[in-house]
Each structure stands twice: as C-alpha cells, then as structure tokens.
Amino acid sequence: MQAARVRINPPRWDSNKVELWPTFATDFESFVEYSGGHRLVQLINAGTTNETLIPRAVVDAMAPDAVAIQDDEDEPAPPEAAEPEIVNRGQLTQDELAMDAQFYHLLKLSITGPGHDAILHVAEKSFITAFVMLRKEHGAANCLRKSALIQQLFDLTYVGKIAEFKQQALSLLRLVFEAKVALEDIIMACLLNAFEGDEFQAFKLMTARQIDDGEPINLYDHIQ
Predict the structure, then answer these.
(1) Cβ within 8 Å of residue 125, ≥6 positions away
(2) Is the Cβ–Cβ distance between 44 and 131 less than 8 Å?
C-alpha cells in the first residue's frame, strides 16, 4: 500500500531579516524536493559540485534490506532508477518547466521585503533563475546555512514509515553534501547554537560572516 504524501506549506521569509535567509533557503529547497522538484534543486546546485552528492555507502545503508525496521505494511521501497546529471534548463521536461514557473510564483508569495521586489525583475519567471539570484546575493553554502542543515539532521526523526524516512533523509543529505558540510562546520554549528535568544542573533550573524570571509575567529573574545 502506497503511503499518502503529506501536504505541506512553503516556508516564509521577511527578507529584511537577512540572518534568516539560510534557514529559509534550506527549508524552501526541501519543500521543492518534497513536492517533486528534485531536478530543479539539482540544477540550482549544478555549478556547486560535479562530484557524487551522496556517497554510495550512505545510500546503500538506507536500502530496505539493510534496515531492520520495516513499515507497518512491511512493504519495501521500490528501487530507485539512476538519473542522468542535469546541467541546464534545456534538459528539463515540459512538465518540469511548468513546475519551475509554479515554484517561482510560490517563492514570490513566500518572501516579503526587498527580496520580493528583487525577484520581480528576473528575466524569466523561473524559480531556478530567481533562487540562483537570491543565492548570489545572500550566499549558497555559508556558515549559517550549514548550521541550519546540521540542525535539521539533528531533528530528523523516524515515525514509522521507512520509505518516507528514506526519502526525507536522502533529500536532506543531498543538501548537506552539496553545501560541503565538514566536521569543523558541525563543531561551529554546535557552538553557535549554544547561544540561544534574540540578544545573540547579531553576534551569531557577525561570527558567521567572519567565517565565510576567511577571517580568524576567537569566540572567547567575542563573548567578553
């Protein structure tokens, strides 16, 4: 029995609060992937890396016969067919191009402030074009975005459906590997997340920007 897909709403972002961009970007990419637009996200990330995004060992470890926990119906997930690498919009099908236009309007409705005004003027009403433009302005794989991805990994929870869990986990892992999250990023994310509350937002944003700019960081000096 096929598990029903849960309907979810796209995340929202007040672009006057630039420090919230990494979380919004990660959540919106996950929303697009969950809604069937994984090839659109793959195209957005095509210029980021040409290597295999998720190591084969990780995918194999999540294969139905390698996981002890089974669905309530004990129905294994169907095997996934390999897809060719996509590097330009010309490789999208007509349905995917229509989806690209649909996600552009959802993106526009999800953003308020200057970011909303900026994507009104893209050359074509394309989610891919608009999102790439926002990435260039606010960063694609910066420290705060990596921290948001790491937090999503920590929050990942199995709720009884192994096929759904595998889809959710692999979607998130794809974003993690695209962002090139390293051990140092996990350590820094844990340190920054230890400072909870609005009074630390400016500190966390400043520290993340210094990391992205390659400046030496001394957290102890910042805290004093």
Answers:
(1) 101, 104, 105
(2) yes
Burial zone of 28 (CB within 10 Å; 0-12 exposed, 13-18 middle, 19+ buried): buried
The burial class, CB within 10 Å (0-12 / 13-18 / 19+), for 126 is: buried
- Contact between 141 and 178 under an 8 Å Cβ cutoff? The reply is yes
- The amino acid at residue 115 is G
**Least confident interval from 14-18, 41-45, 82-86:** 82-86
Instruction: Give the tens place of pLDDT for each residue, 121-143.
Output: 887 889 999 998 888 777 654 67
Q: Which residues contact 111 (CB under 8 A, 6 or more apart)?
A: 12, 13, 15, 119
For 31, residues 6+ apart whose C-beta sits below 8 A from its C-beta are: 8, 10, 11
- Picking from 186, 165, 194, the residue whose alpha carbon sits closest to that of residue 69 is 165
pLDDT of residue 81: 47
Q: Give 80 or 109, the one with higher predicted confidence.
A: 109
Element of type H or E holding 134? helix 127-138
pTM of the model: 0.53
Does 48 score more than 50 pLDDT?
Answer: no
CA 153 to CA 147: how far, in whole Å? 10
Tokens linked to 18: 């630039």
Report the b/e string of 142-160 with b at 16+ CB within 10 A: bbbbbbbbbebeeeeeeee
Phi, psi of 29 (to 5 degrees): -60, -45
